[in-house]
Amino acid sequence: MTITKAATHVTQNEALVFERSQTGRRGYRLPALDVEETALDELLPAELRREDDLEGVPELSEPDVVRHFTRISTWNYNIDLGLYPLGSCTMKYNSRLNERVARIPGFAALHPLAPEEDAQGALEVMYELQRHLAEITGLPGVSLQPAAGAHGELTGVMMIRAALDARDGTSSDEAQRRKVMLIPDSAHGTNPASAHLSGFTVKTIRSTPEGLTDLDNLRELCASGDVAGLMLTNPNTCGIFERNIKEICAVVHEAGGLVYMDGANMNALVGVARPGDMGVDVIHLNLHKTFSTPHGGGGPGSGPCCCTAELEPFLPVPRVTSGGETGDTRFALEYDRPQSVGRVKAFYGNFGMHLRALAYILTHGNEGLREATEAAVLNARFIAAGLADTFDSPFDSPPMHECLFTDKRQSRKGVHTLDIAKRLIDYGFHPMTIYFPLIVSGAMLIEPTESVGRAELQQFVDAMKEIAREAVEDADTVLNAPHTTRIGRLDEAAAARKPVLRWRPAERAAGA
Ligand SMILES: *Cc1c(COP(=O)(O)O)cnc(C)c1O
Questions:
Q1: Are 271 and 108 in contact (CB under 8 A)?
Q2: SS3 call for 13
Q3: Quick one: angle between helices 190-197 and 149-168, nearest 10?
């Protein structure tokens, strides 16, 4: 029996909600007015009133709407479905308990302007989280305000600027000259963006053939006397631990600069090593990566900034502080901090994320956090070892929590990183991070996280090996992948550069 298009309507070719519209359909009915209608003309000035009659708003019943969105939701890949090996992004499983905690009504419904004495529980959550993050990073000053990693970076480099200005003044020749932020060529694009936005000039440090920061190049750049600081990711974006980190920090400090660490890769360090002990002055954490909590699809983020005691006066206001063990307001908000860079986010940051991260930390405990880190590194090494004979790896150093391969061997047959990533979708996996870091041609950055077991890791390795075999024996299958999705290969450049964000019935009808 052939299946007609009509019979497959539930899962295939879902029309836009506008296209499903039927004149007169509705999801509710209100009782007739029992008061006199007020003419809108009296309430709104003429120039603010719209003249059309809301043309084009879809008319649908409640089940029409619910089923439309539920069907579309089943087309998504998500973290609860399977391995999501996006390198650098740390897409780990988010436990249901974290979500339960974030939904406790006393927290979820608390008004951000509630007086301090009525918000002691929420302040205690933030205070406790700060304490744990300080312990994990070895950096005692913490602000939970920044709403994302990039926002934490911006906050951190603003603090570096403020600290240098406080130390050197702003008018001396030296202060005028000290405007250079050093950033390795492997860095995430947000690093130079944050430095630039804070008024720094960016100079790039080379990486060695081993994938590490080139110390000689660093010394050379530091000799010029214009270095304000260094922004370094560790383990770096090649997944390799910068084993010279203490020396790197010492060179920058000797040159009068401060060290910023991009903490996006802290999933390789939590419970094992502390940036504060390595000489780092200020770091951001991505709670939405390292401490579970959902992200992707624009989900909420949180990028706390942690710093040394010397930099603490420059943290954003207000600061959440503790007045002691007794009294009604044991926890308070402190605004009077004259050296602060100011406020960087409305209220106190994304509080729901603070709850989830604290729940993650407390349910793991000290041992559990360390175990999660060890498992994350072990899992990445399992994949690295499993694929070592099949894919080219650009560096010899053993990877930490993510491993890096290239398409060098497959590209001889015309199959590139993008094709391999698309073909992975047919095998039921979300693709890995591709073409990042930029210094590695055809990069595939794979980060399984601690959330997957051995069987799924093996499935992933098998799928990648199978794709490598196809690249040789049946390149067309890989080049035209994915084959199992509703829509094949998208024009991603057009989608990014010329997104169609509005749907207008008339233009659509006219073929625009
Ligand atoms: C994710 C990431 C960032 C930026 O963090 P956001 O929370 O996405 O703003 C910065 N650096 C690295 C290395 C990252 O992986």
A1: no
A2: coil
A3: 40
Pocket test for ligand 1, best of 144, 232, 286 (most atoms within 8 A of CB): 286
Stretch among 18-27, 187-196, 235-244 having the lowest mean pLDDT: 18-27
Compute CA distances 44 → 40, 41, 47, whole Å: 6, 6, 8
Number of Cα atoms under 13 Å in the Cβ half of residue 37:
5
Residue nearest to atom 5 of ligand 1 (CA): 149
Q: Do residues 390 and 405 touch, judged by C-beta distance below 8 A? A: no
CA of 157 to the centre of ligand 1 (A): 15
Does the C-beta of 320 come closer than 6 Å to ligand 1?
Answer: no
Give SS3 for 227: strand
**Ligand 1 atom index nearest CA of 90:** 15
| DSSP three-state, residue 366 | helix
pLDDT in tens, 147-197: 999 999 999 999 999 999 999 998 888 778 899 999 999 999 999 999 999
pLDDT in tens, 343-394: 999 999 999 999 999 999 999 999 999 999 999 999 999 999 999 999 999 9
Q: Whose CA is nearest to atom 8 of ligand 1?
A: 149
| Strands 305-307, 141-143: pairing kind | antiparallel
- Is 264 a pocket residue for ligand 1 (Cβ < 6 Å)? yes
Q: Which residues pair with 259 in a beta bridge?
A: 230
Give the separation between CA 95 and CA 119, rounded to whole angstroms: 26
Q: What distance in angstroms lies between residue 190's CA and the mean position of ligand 1's atoms?
A: 7
